[in-house]
Design brief:
The chain has one domain: Four Helix Bundle (Hemerythrin (Met), subunit A) (Up-down Bundle), CATH 1.20.120. The chain is 85% helix and 0% strand. It is built from 5 helices and no strands. Helix 1 runs antiparallel to helix 2, helix 2 packs antiparallel against helix 4 and helix 4 packs antiparallel against helix 5. The longest helix has 27 residues. The two termini are 23 Å apart.
């Protein structure tokens, strides 16, 4: 499985956990997703095809969601999370990955 396919699978898994409100599992997979995206961001192929500003913005949102879910799981404050917003932000990451896949496929065809 390619890295981008693996990330797409992770995103689908996270969205399923969020729909089922399995926050602990979503939290773990979101941390995995963040690690993969950071690794992706370092590759020349990714830098060439996706705006660094776009990925950084999405990583910032992902980190915020990870932190907020962590607080909710640990019950250390009354922090509220909006699962719909988290899902929308995760969907934006999926769009980035799809964009990356399409651009790299087009490069191979040239």
């Amino acid at each position: 499985m390619s890295d981008s396919s693996h990330v797409s699978h992770l995103i689908a898994e996270i969205q399923g956990y969020l729909r089922e409100e399995k926050l602990e599992l979503a939290h773990l997979r979101m941390k995995d997703l963040k690690r993969h995206l950071i690794s992706f961001k370092q590759t020349e192929r990714f830098k060439k095809n996706i705006s660094v500003q776009k990925i950084n913005s999405n990583l910032t949102n992902l980190s915020t969601h990870i932190n907020n879910i962590s607080v909710v799981i640990s019950k250390t404050s009354d922090t509220q999370i909006d699962l719909q917003t988290i899902n929308q932000d995760i969907e934006l990451l999926l769009e980035l990955i799809i964009e990356f896949e399409q651009k790299t496929k087009n490069e191979k065809l040239k």
